Amino acid sequence: MADLILHHYDISPYAEKIRLAFGLKGLAWRSVIQPMVLPKPDLMPLTGGFRRTPVLQAGADIYCDTLRIAMELDRRVPDPPLLPEEGRGFDAVLATWAERVLMWPTARYVTGMNRETLSEGFFRDRSAMRGHAAPDMEKVAADLPHQEGQLRLMLGWVEDLLAGPASDLATRTPRLADFALYQRLWWLNALDGKAAPVLAGHPRIADWMARIAAIGHGRRSELTPADALRIAAEAEPAPIASTAPPGDIPPGSRVRVATEDFALDPVEGETVHATPTEITIRREAPETGRIHVHFPRLGYEVTAL
Ligand SMILES: N[C@@H](CCC(=O)N[C@@H](CS)C(=O)NCC(=O)O)C(=O)O
Hints:
Elements: E1 5-8, H1 13-25, E2 28-33, H2 44-47, E3 55-58, E4 61-64, H3 66-76, H4 88-113, H5 120-129, H6 137-142, H7 144-163, H8 176-186, H9 203-213, E5 219-222, H10 225-234, E6 254-259, E7 267-274, E8 278-285, E9 289-296, E10 300-304
Parallel strand pairs: 1-2, 2-5, 4-9
Antiparallel strand pairs: 1-3, 3-4, 6-7, 6-10, 7-8, 8-9
Helix pairs in contact: 1-3, 1-8, 4-7, 4-8, 7-9
């Protein structure tokens, strides 16, 4: 099987999910550092326009979104599973809450508290990604007490969950959902750590985070973006052997796949394979030749062209 190549940057919380997944499964992987902001000239030929972080590459196969990456890692190394069948409803609710609700006060509080470390270009890029004008830094600073209040409420809920309804998170073998919650809290320690004090006074969260951090990142070695492109150009996409029932989109359809949230990043291509949970499209780029780009269906809109 082709080597696993993660396109990421070190302070990406979503990438931290996948680095921990490598640790959990004891995997060796190659690390390609991509820019935090656009342009991303060495990533776009691989994804066809998807800019989000992280992206997993295996030869000429490109996996977008941490959910789709986890599906592929489970296919390669089933044990321990990131997406076990048992408990999947609880896991999906936990991950969705962490990444769609807790996401916002953590993102706003960390970037606001560390605004002097982050460049103006970073704020401009993220606002443009969400279709907004660049933020006024005075307003960002003035909003911090509100964000901190929201965050403290939610951290109280997580502390409560760990005490009772979700106490098995403290003992079970971690899964993707555990890493989804963890990555939001890990982000509070990121950059200059100016947001980290908000975590104090939550002993269960502290113990649980230490347990997850101890998993580590597996065996990482660096690779240049140019080498990653060369590997894609020299490879052919892996044959898709699927026993899944056919989905709603016949193979060979020309489609556009775009995230449902703020950064649309549409990618166009021809369907190779589609089921209710995943879709794979074929693309060609001069830098890479033929590529298969894989997405989850959750959170992505597929439009027939
Ligand atoms: N649903 C996506 C979300 C990924 C995401 O939002 N990542 C952030 C970085 S942690 C991002 O893409 N930011 C913009 C960028 O890196 O260009 C996933 O699970 O992979």
